[in-house]
Here is the input.
Amino acid sequence: MNPVPGVTRHTLHRGAMAAAGLLLGLMSAAASAGTALGKRPFAPALRSANAAPAASVAVASGLRNVVSASGNVYLSTDGVGSNAPGAQLRVDKRSAASTVRSAHLLVASAGFSQHLPDDGDLLLGGAPVDIDEATRVDTRVFAVNARADVTAIVKPLVDAAAPGLISLPVVETRPELIDGSILAVVFDDPAVADGTVLLYFGSHSAGDNRIDVNLVDPIGPDVADRGAEFTIGIAFSAQDSSDQSQSTVIDVNAITMTRLAGGQDDGALELGALLTVGGIGDSPDVPGLISGCTLGARCDDERYALEQAMAVNSRNIGIRFNNESADDNILFASFASRGTRAVSLVERLTATPASQTLDVRQNAEVAVQLETSVDDRRAGRRVDLAVLNGNVVTPPFGTTDADGRVRFAVPCLAAGRSFVEARVVGLNSLLLRSPPIQITCNALATRLTAEPSRLSLGSGLRQLYRARLETLAPLLPESGELLRVFDRDGQRLCIAITDDDGVGECVSDLPPLQTLLLGGFRVEFEGSAELLPASASGRRGLLLAPR
Here is the structure.
């Protein structure tokens, strides 16, 4: 399939987030080409990076385990991204005894389209696909991911077919709005070894994303008849032989499997066709362990045999993945074990409320919740708060109770906006982070009152100025603050520091008689990290200041 004229590798990949305007121009070019072919014109609406996701769409929070199947099971996965009217999704049926337990279609709308996948967008095997609206998830590239249970469509077709690769036609009714789709089929087969299939879906979070799995029996490079595979599905990712910087790094138990996950292996170098997923036709060899695999060659197909990277036989597998280029859409992952069953270990850390606003000298109340599928890992865990940016001071660490909860009081010491996250050491010694929360601290309003000036006989006849600085809510004196006194022409006369009663006083030379009789003065407080500025006007007087 030929790329749209004018679309280059760099346009598709590095411009994905930073050059949104250029992408929209390219999409318009694609729309023009589509119109010539009788397709629906494509006119996406670009939203700002701070815009909220569309209605009825969940905010991106990582991939979650949505399917768990154990027994004599195996998994078949395939994906396709295309701007053509139709394409093929394949299913690998290993034997005549294989029957479909469940089938799932994972869909990604095109990057920056904001399109919500819906009923009627796709036909599979000639049947319309019903998208589960509750599954729709917002992404970091202004697309939306969704999934559908297509067992009712796939099972009768595949169960009746002969063993081997079975092709199911998939039609995108609006291909310019869909990056591609992934078909994951879980099979029962009495001839395969006992194992577990775990499917994950969602939208990757910024920074590290984690999947943790616990095995009944250990696996490793020296363990026969037992093993596991991990696959990942990525949309809106483009690579070619000269540039693979749009990529994702994957670590397993702190061993780097690959830094090159991504690209358009199952699609094309075209907007609306950018998709890759590990599955049929892909090798489970680990690119990071292949001698001679360089950035100049495309050698990653998103399918990984985990036992190759297990330095020590282990029952716990911690998979960490991070889209370092920050412009891909990771929507799917799978884990399949053979010869041993597995359980998805869930550990999730959240902090609430997501945002709060209060005055300085108050405490922001932060509630942290540790969720885990292993009951005995909830209690007694150390949780720290970390300031990502801003100027709040975090309290000492806390310890979770029996329900995995801990509360913090974060003092607001200065005005400004801060972002804070909770942290705890999770499974496999990986650091578990909560989504950041925002704490906004407002400076306190102040009131400045100036008394009439008086004559001072301290060291010659001089003029004494006196003013009081207070906060309004609550009404309290402010000590140690700098006040400046100016005449009506803006010339500074003297500087005062407030005492414990909020009073500051200073003296200046006696002005000329005419100025003394007619002129006033002004006191200024410029504000501080805690207090808003204030000013007050006063009049000069001829009364003698008390000794």
Observations:
- Helices lie at 9-13, 15-18, 20-36, 151-159, 513-518.
- The two ends are 95 Å apart (CA to CA).
